Amino acid sequence: MNTLENQVMLIQLESERLTQYLHTLPPDAWCQPSACDLWEVRDVVGHLAWLAEVYADAITRGVHGDASWQADRPPGAAPIEGAAFSAYLAQSAIAYREHLGEQLLPTFSARYGQLHHLLAGLTAQDWDKPCAFWPSEGTVPVRRFPLQTMQELVIHGWDIRSRLATAAPLSAESLPVLMARLPARLGLPRYAAFRLDARQPTPVRYRFVVTGVVPSTHDLIVEHGKVRMEPAGGAAPHVTFRCETGTFVLMMYRRLTLHAVMAAGQLVVEGEQGLIAAFDQWLKEA
Q1: Are residues 163 and 191 in the same domain?
Q2: Which of 116, 195, 223, 261 could covalently link to 267 via disulfide, CB atoms 3.0 to 4.6 Å apart?
Q3: Residues 6 or more apart whose Cβ sits within 8 Å of residue 79
């Protein structure tokens, strides 16, 4: 169930699961590259610990009536997006990790314990109170944070495990939550600019037949360069993909390319080659 209570419970589960895994890593593993470009494993952990602190601060101030972005926290009040925002996040993660030093893992564990305690103690009225999020997005209700936190923990946990372990599946408990998040995520600006050849049909309907933990069928519809996700309808698709839920989620979160999952035998595709190639390019650029 994708309820607020379930999301809060999963934050505790996923943070404890990742903490236990990190405790098993030898010292040299922390300096290994993660699946995040230019981030080492320790930088990803620093990013997650920093986010937990930022989110807890925003929620605490929001429930007490302060929905402003902290003036001393870059990038300040000015909207910042794209490459500049990614650079800001990277710099924050590395600086936070360097500041913590040997206390990185204990701080990570403590920050998520504190965030879970805060969320678990909120009242029904608190969930709709406005909070500062990123300057580019303005304010959001408190209820946005559990899902956002879950997303960060699960996907960045995969970023770490996938480079250090032979298998790094997403937890079965997380998949319903991440699937529910995808329609809104695909509406973000970074997922626009889907380039189709002028000779190709429009709108183009890419159908995903998803099996496993969350069996379902979804259409990704490309029209005017934008993508939207909706339950499959009666219209015939131009391309059909068949894969398990975890594969679908990681593709939509830009962690797996079409070529990689096809080479691994994790996806079967049928349809026009030109449209398949366009989809693969979109995944790489999104």
Answers
A1: no
A2: 261
A3: 135, 136
> Domain of 268: which CATH number?
3.30.1050.10
Amino acid 188: pLDDT: 78
Q: What is the mean pLDDT of residues 85-110?
A: 90
Residues 222 and 128 in one domain: no
Q: Which residues contact 66 (CB under 8 A, 6 or more apart)?
A: none
Cβ count near 128 (within 10 Å): 9
Residue 186: Cβ within 10 Å count = 17
As a whole number of angstroms, the distance between CA 47 and CA 108 comes to 9
Query: Is the full-model pTM beyond 0.85?
Result: yes
Mean pLDDT score of the chain: 90
CA gap 97, 266 in Å, rounded:
35
- Return the closest-CA partner of residue 175 out of 138, 142, 213: 213
Distance, in Å, from the CA atom of 86 to the CA atom of 83, rounded to the nearest integer, reads: 5
